[in-house]
Amino acid sequence: MVGMGLPICRHPPDAARQPVLRTAQLASHPVTQMTMTRLKATLLALTLATALAPALPGRAQTTTGDATAPAADGLSLGAPSATVTSAPGGGLPTQDKAEVGQTYYVQNYDAWELRCRKTADGSDPCNLYQLLKDDTGNPVAEINVFPLPEGQQAVAGANVVAPLETLLTKSLGLAIDGTDPKIYPFAFCTRDGCVARVGLTAGEVDAMKKGAVAKVTIVPAAAPDKPVTLEVSLKGFTAGFDAVQASRVKN
Q1: Cα–Cα distance between 215 and 120 in angstroms, integer?
Q2: What CA–CA distance (Å, rounded) separates 128 from 241?
Q3: Angle, to 10 degrees, between the axis of helix 202-210 and the axis of helix 237-250?
Q4: What distance in Å separates the CA atoms of residue 195 and residue 203, rounded to the nearest whole number?
Q5: Domains identified in the chain and CATH numbers
Q6: Predicted model pTM
């Protein structure tokens, strides 16, 4: 299973360490591919506390009414914001319509989406996905969580994708339901974002199942004195994680 060797990270060190950036390593992993195909935003080189982008490309939207009818020259006339909603699965296909190598949407578990990647042999790897937004509702980062094989200190892994404008030397902070945050280094970057690979112990997974919210903290390179904290809703995590584990056993 993917995620072997994920770091069980320590509490914040006295001095920030330089991250190890690997643009190719791990990029071929199924779960990593599922992560990297989602964050296609053009993020402004400003503080992440401001509006970064109106929406992520690939996040399909549905509208009602005639306001979105195209003008004669093919331009959209727009729609009242109240009529625009995110489609389930962010516009991803369902399993029966997905092609080999493509990520598909299965179902929602409250704040989480169960997503899988179609394989030729049917052993589709799955994970739980959540898009993380700032206080004004702008997409900023994303997280996916997946179980790991037994016999390791980490029983689950998580990929957290942050914008390219993140200050990597400050690493990523993760606090689960009010606990003291742990610090995780960024493992590598691609043109889509920078990834922190998180190893979760059994106790931390249990805390996520029992908790209400986790918090991810990243630091903008343009405003290092203004860290940005993003909430990760834990509503539905228990049922969702159990479903991912069940799909792993089935496959």
Answers
A1: 37
A2: 7
A3: 130
A4: 23
A5: 30-49+85-250 (2.60.40.1880)
A6: 0.67
